[in-house]
Amino acid sequence: MKANVTFKWLPFLLLAFCFLIPAVASAAPPQDGSVSQRPVQAFDIGAGKVVKSVPNNKEFQAYAINWLGSVTGLAPQAKPEDKCGYVFRIPLKEPAMVKAGTASVRTSDVFLFYCPDKPQVLLIFDENRKPFLLTFKADTKPFLKQMGL
User: Fold this and answer.
1) How far apart, in whole angstroms, are the C-alpha atoms of residue 75 and residue 91?
2) pLDDT exceeds cutoff 90 at 144
3) Could you give the number of structural domains in the chain?
């Protein structure tokens, strides 16, 4: 099965690439139990900007790994809502291998597209920055509650 990323996804892929720009971080190691200097971020699609940035900790890492472990396949026909919901970015402490259709993909970031009442989709990039849209079955409610959005 081959991912079919069409031009309708171009604005959202560009948005995701903006998230990939590393956050400016101090040289001091984190003191709050966070696992990475790169924070978890929430981008409000309607507002067109990052609305929340929180320290990346073991709990967020566990959410992302759980989502990746529950991938059910590629989502080539998924269509994002233009002005609905959020895109969350969770940088991974360690790159993870994900089974995406017939391919195994190594990724360092997980993007969750969330729109109430619509199927949630994950976006990951391989080492060559090729995008993969994924369906998954894990519960995101605890993550959303922790993000407070």
Assistant:
1) 21
2) yes
3) 1
Residue 2 lies in a domain: no
Measured distance CA(72)–CA(93) in Å, rounded: 23
Residue 102 lies in a domain: yes
Whole-structure pTM value: 0.77
| 71 closest CA partner among 40, 105, 99 | 99
Residue 108 is part of which domain span?
Answer: 7-22+35-147
SS3 of residue 60 by DSSP: helix
* Residue 29 domain-assigned (yes or no): no
**Better pLDDT: 43 or 76:** 43
In angstroms, the Cα distances linking 6 to 61, 72, 96, 125, 147 are 30, 21, 25, 15, 30
Torsion angle in degrees (nearest 10) through CA of 12, 16, 21, 23? 120
- pLDDT per residue over 122-137, tens digit each? 999 999 999 999 999 9
**Does residue 104 contact residue 97 with C-beta atoms inside 8 Å?**
yes
In a domain, 30, yes or no: no
